[in-house]
């Protein structure tokens, strides 16, 4: 049910609520479909063999009340993990921020009523921000 924002008239106003969750994780940008040389060329320093870390900030926007269970998708699965080694989804998918947004969307949408989840926005760094709306 869409959130009603103090609507006194017959029609309900649709509002959006965003909850913010931060987590820390490490990763390495490396595609199984590229050679080591091609990976180094494409991903540069982000392909360094021992990886690097981020303090990710995730903004989850829904069209209504947020149930507490949804933050487990982020914190339990991702916080203080190595995305490439601890999260099976990234065994064959490069752990870019856009793929991380899809991962969070796929796992969060299962926990919510239909059409409630509106947007996942992830700040990987101050300059690297991704928005995904399930398209
Ligand atoms: N398509 C994508 N390309 C890259 C992503 C991504 O998520 N999607 N991510 C990275 C690395 O994870 C990298 O750590 C991103 O940040 P980085 O380049 O280190 O830092 P900034 O962009 O904030 O700052 P610069 O000073 O411009 O490096 C790379 N590619
Ligand atoms: Zn990175």
Q: In words, what does this structure look like?
A:
With 135 residues, the chain is an alpha+beta fold. The protein is built from 4 helices and 5 strands, in the order E-H-E-H-E-H-H-E-E. The protein has helices at residues 36-43, 70-78, 83-86, 97-109; strands at 17-27, 52-62, 81-82, 117-123, 129-132. The radius of gyration is 17 Å and the shape is elongated. The structure holds the ligand Nc1nc2c(c(=O)[nH]1)N=C([C@H](O)[C@H](O)COP(=O)(O)OP(=O)(O)OP(=O)(O)O)CN2 and zinc ion. Residues 27, 46, 52, 54 line the site of zinc ion.
Keywords:
single chain; 135 residues; alpha+beta; Tetrahydropterin Synthase, Chain A; 5 strands; disordered N terminus; binds the ligand Nc1nc2c(c(=O)[nH]1)N=C([C@H](O)[C@H](O)COP(=O)(O)OP(=O)(O)OP(=O)(O)O)CN2; binds zinc ion
